[in-house]
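Predict fold of tRNA pseudouridine synthase A; 264 aa.
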Amino acid sequence: MPRLKLTIAYVGTNYCGWQIQAFSRRPQPTVQEELERVAERVLGTPVRIFGSGRTDSGVHAEGQVAHFDVPEDKADRDWQRTFNAMLPDDIAVLDVERVASDFHARINATGKIYAYSLWLTRRYTPPRLFPFVWATGPVDVAAMDAAARHLEGTHDFSTFRNVGTEVETCVRTLRSISRSPHGPLPGADTPDYARVGIPLQLTWYFEADGFLKQMVRNLMGTLVACGTGKLSPDAVPSLLAACDRAQAPATAPAQGLSLARVLY
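Predicted 3D structure, encoded as tokens:
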């Protein structure tokens, strides 16, 4: 059967993550479930859509990737139009392409890029951004940059992994941590960035060959702890070496996180 690759964006606020909660006593809506509902309605038979990986409850996506198989006589249908006509407004299919029959959205992925957005004042958060940022207040980006340099590279990231998913190893290669805007910002003692003309939204990008459960949110929590003076950047190597989740700062909130791109 022909195989189709989907590129999907969604607002995760109203969903219990990407993956269907098959064994939950009180099932919650998921993005995978919504996509499969549309495919089943069109094809008249249950359809399994495989994603590149899970996203947590409340986490968003700008470039999630998935695949599913269709009968030959349905392969040339305008699936993008079909999905977007029948999906809720907070899920959109950005692209559909026919791929080789052995393509697998998860197995063939060579890496992912996540984005996490901070809002740099506690005085207010624009309502349109409220579901998409963590309002941390001002941060010392120089301290965060220093901490990020310790995290880049190949490490055992057990300290930054929440329990819940079995994995063979916690070793991952964090290829880069970057941010936008790129330049210097005032220190965390600046009372109000807006009054000195500083952009209030700061987005961090994490690229790796793979991520552990809630790893990006845990890394972000650690960077913010450094940026607010609660943790020294020089303490980060010890956190990595400890391989102990209990020693690291708290997990960052879900709403600031988005799966930006899956690499193949």
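The chain has a mean pLDDT of 93.
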